[in-house]
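Lab notebook page, bench 4
Experiment: in silico fold of construct C2
Operator: M.H.
Input chain length: 425 residues
Purpose: comparison with the prior construct
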Amino acid sequence: MSEGGLRRDAPWLALIVLMAISTVGFIDRIVVNVLVEPVKAEFGLSDTQVSLMGVAFTVLNIGVGLIIARIAERTRRMTLISVGTLLWSVATAACGVAASWIQLLVSRMGVGLGEAIGLPSLQSVIADYFPANRRGFAISILMLAPPVGAFIGFVGGGWIAENFDWRFTFLVAALPGLLLAMLAYAIVAEPARGRHDPGAGDEVPPLMDVLRRLTGLSSARNLVIGSALAAMLGFGLNYFFASLMIRRFELSIGEAGFYAGVIASLPAALSVVGTGWLGDKFGEKTPAAYALVPAVSLLLGGPIYAFAITRDALVPLLALISIATFLNFGYLGVTYATLQNLMHPRMRATASAMLNVVYGLASAGGPLFLGMLSDRMAQTHGVSEGLVIAMAIFGLAYAWAGVHYLLAARRLKADMAVTALRSGS
């Protein structure tokens, strides 16, 4: 199928372009992490106050995303993706010219609004381009956006902030999205709904049916809880990691951004792709593998992170954190793919938006809770050591997320069989 003009119905072209858009979205979301210290200094903020940039992003993101997703089940998704990308890029640029703390928070709300329009449809489009037995790997490629975006956001953002200033960092971060918005609209075709899910039908299921699948199925419910916990912890730890490097080891913002970017990118990228491949390799015969692989990763990675963050020497800390990051990101791509497989084809954009509500709250709560815990610990242990203790506690909590993946593995095979029957009815 072709929509005419330059638009091509090509799975790998779509995957590359949408992965690039998702990456830019993550850059625009995460670049504030490396700018915590200069923003905090300019506006005279506490850790709790500066964490409100994450809350501001979430305010419009979680509500609007669900409304847009219902529209996306019935209309051209690639148009929504292009419009959303354009909007969040403009809002990112607005962050760079904010004259006050309130203006910066409002601009971050604009970034969240743009992502609410553009991102819910990404996984739905990819799920229609790739069959079920290849979605684990395909969506894992899409989910390379967080680690790749983290690398660019931390390293590039840190370098720009050090050599120019934090405002210019936002302006530079806005440019790629403007170009990708036009590219996606011009060359990526809209795939036919459910073309790899025979008998799925064109009727759009009610919103409550989507919610029932996510909460009523034991495997889906535990995958959502486990991944939300892991996301909350990850967002919190990544938000303050560069600050820890600056406070504890007295690194420059450029050095701190480099270390934070490398650690948040390469190990995580290898983990996301590796677990997606493992899930598809073993999941067709043993569906529980889609949950067991991240379960083991999280149960090992959490304690390693807690031990690593308390090291007094920089090199051992970075080496151990890299191992922990590799393990703690093992849930990412394979979880999204599994939840997409549990959905009817015309539930997928809505399911992504519902998950975005959950993960949006997690992305706001992680930095906020860690910031509050850090401020509390700082009262008795000092600013630097207080942050270390707070991050160690967050690291240990990854094991809690791992337990939910173990629970999901127990019912995944039965739930996949049930939902396959429902989609074909």
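Observations: The chain has a mean pLDDT of 88. The radius of gyration is 20 Å.
Next step: discuss at group meeting.
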